[in-house]
Design a protein that fits this description.
Radius of gyration: 17 Å
Distance between the termini: 37 Å
Low-confidence stretches: none
Helix content: 25-40%
Number of helices: 6
Strand content: 15-25%
């Protein structure tokens, strides 16, 4: 595994649990607002996987779980073996993914290697180019359907970027109608953004409108970082 590092404890990355967060190197998307741009490329300095696993075993009495995020973890060829090792620690395992690799995701769900899956849906499927250049959105749709049918806990989430409208959030929620949870995340500026001049985040009124539209299709809508 090409790992970029570990955040040793987090109270927000795994809902309801204290978790360590492991970052993988490499991503096949290039979202204009990405906060982890420094690890988009698979090349670069990597963290020692064995040291990270040893740390997790030592902290089992304090940590509830571990989050595997990125980058995009499912780009890693040995991600299944790594997740099996994570499960063997006795910790709960959460996977963050962009949904572009339904084949790997299917194997993970069938083996029960993820107790919780958080999948980003960047925009309505017909408007992904507002956020990132991509040709294959069908794989993302397949992954979303697969997650909704699996036994694992899950959430879908969207960063409410300034170039998305409340109606776009409603359309995304409609595409996962009946999902257990949909999270609207407030956009935050960062130094690594591709946009030369980043627009300001949406105000509370627009976020509330987006939340109301999403609730027409998903009962449990969570807003993060805005109120």
């Amino acid at each position: 595994m090409r790992l970029a590092g570990i955040h040793k404890n987090s109270f927000v990355d795994y809902p309801g649990h204290i978790a360590a967060v492991i970052f993988t190197r490499g991503c096949n998307l290039n979202c204009w607002y990405c906060h982890n741009r420094h690890i988009i490329d698979k090349a670069g300095e990597t963290a020692n996987a064995q040291s990270i696993l040893s740390f997790l075993k030592e902290r089992r009495g304090f940590l509830d779980g571990v989050v595997l995020t990125g980058g995009e973890p499912l780009l890693q060829e040995d991600v299944l073996d790594f997740m099996r090792t994570l499960k063997s620690t006795g910790l709960l395992v959460k996977l963050d993914t962009n949904g572009t690799n339904p084949k790997a995701l299917s194997s993970i769900l069938k083996e029960g290697l993820a107790d919780y899956v958080a999948m980003d849906i960047k925009a309505p499927y017909g408007k992904y180019d507002l956020i990132t250049p991509i040709e294959d959105v069908e794989s993302i749709q397949v992954s979303a359907g697969m997650i909704m049918e699996a036994n694992a806990e899950y959430e879908f989430r969207t960063t409410f970027a300034p170039n998305l409208a409340a109606e776009d959030i409603g359309e995304i929620a409609q595409s996962v109608r009946g999902a257990k949870k949909y999270c609207i995340q407030q956009f935050k500026k960062s130094e690594g953004m591709r946009a030369k001049i980043a627009p300001d985040p949406h105000g509370v009124v627009e976020i509330m409108r987006a939340e109301a539209l999403a609730k027409k299709y998903v009962r449990n809508v969570i807003v993060r970082g805005a109120y």
